[in-house]
What does this fold into?
Amino acid sequence: MTPLAQPVGDCGVILRLGDHISPDIHADVVAMQTAVTAAGLPGVTELVPSYTALFIGYDPLITDYETLSASLSALTPEPAALKAPAVREVPVCYDAELAPDLAEVAERTGQSTEAVINTHMSGDYMIYMYGFAPGYAYMGGVPKGLRLPRKQTPVRDVPGGTVCIAGPQSLVTTMTLPTGWWRLGRSPFRFLRTGDGGDAFPLAVGDHVRFRRISRAEYERRREGKGGA
Amino acid sequence: MNVSFRIDFAGPFVSVQDRGRPGFMRYGVTESGPMDRTAFGILRRALEGPETFRALEISPGGVVLSCCSGQLTAGVVGGDFDIRIDGARQPAWSVFALSAGQKLSIRPGPSGSWCYLGFAGQIEGPEWLGSGSVHLASGLCGRALTAGDVLNVARARPRPDLHAAFPIPDFAVLDGTVRVVIGPQQNHFAPEALRALTTEPFQVTPEYDRMGMRLKGVPLVPCDALSIPSEALVRGSVQVPGHGDPLILLADHQTTGGYPKVATVITADIDRVAQARPEDRIRFRAVSPGDAVLATRAAHRAAERFMDDLSGWRGSLAERLSRTNLISGAVTGGAD
It folds into this structure.
């Protein structure tokens, strides 16, 4: 579809490429982001892809809405399908102690905890967007048999590295924060790392993720080896 | 020289800020930086600070600190706070000397919610993604200051040539009108709600921190609030959750959100909005994005002019008078 441009105050343009969450619409968002990056438009300060839209932040001392939206409408994004997506393997330890909600998810979805683990690992996940807090990558792709609405009441002090699900989404937390999502395990893989610029965030929007099961011993070993995973 | 301060008292949300860390919203990292970027910029210029200049951002809770060693030049800009050195009143926007044994207290004065304290020298602290701005919610770059903490200033020096008392410029004061660009999700509101946004008054509530400010007024209940996929937010986004009270998002806003955004406060007005206090009343006025950019550029020029003239306020009253006399004397001499 033709992107719908809307002003965001005097410092942004939001380009809407659809109105519901789908891989096709999101592929258009990523393709548009690639095109905007390549165009190197003057005054652009932020590019934020989300499920159905791309936000383009600008410096109002350098450019303005009319100029920028005209430049954006002249872009011709290449279909993203031409590029093979990056796939990252993310290790998860599903040890009961690190997976406080595993048993309840099994009960609510009418299957064994082993079946929940296998179903979770069978999903092909893709990062749709980052949001909420630094390094929080929202991944779509939770298999149908595991989709539960988020909890009524968020749980406090959920540690970083928690692998959790809500509806079609999965997430690996990066810091201790409350969450109302279901906690299925813990990963030593760090979505947010020390270091500057891109090094701090090893995964990009559009990247695919496969979860791989690891033992408690391997989890502890990799968690201590500070290098991420 | 290294000069250290002991924090004797600090209200909530007192933190070190620099210009912020733009460019990482795509990874969930908000820009942060000063709540009032204009005031911060003026302080930086008044102290001839570098691009990476850091200041202590002081909330309405206030702060009291003691200088433990050495001497240096310090400055305060922002809002209209009550500034005292060992109990003696100091102009709200000024640059002055501090030395070991002195106690500086910064408390809320007649108006304003945020005040910046900086030094000739650089405040020490951690850095993350190229910025020293504390992000309170994540704790990824330091934390809020509390009593007992020590604040170190590196390369501290006395700069008596910078000492000055500045007037508070009109552009720093909220006159009650806040300009917004409508949208980008105005279609999630009924026409009556959109009309109310720009015709009814709203009041600032005590639910106010570095992430945002909750307003109270006619409820602007969105029609279909739960069906919107999350998308990017900006400083100035006016987001309306199910309760119908608008929230103006500020320096530490979350990068994305799923509640509909009825409008966006323009850059020219957002610093003044941040200086509002609970119970202050504001009215929104809608402007086009083009007019908003023009207003922001005009506001930027006004601040630049003020900063270009800072040197005119330096020195003691006697020094300023003698400077004026020299100039007028020269003019008179020329006319003779």
Summary: Residues 308-335 of chain B form one domain.
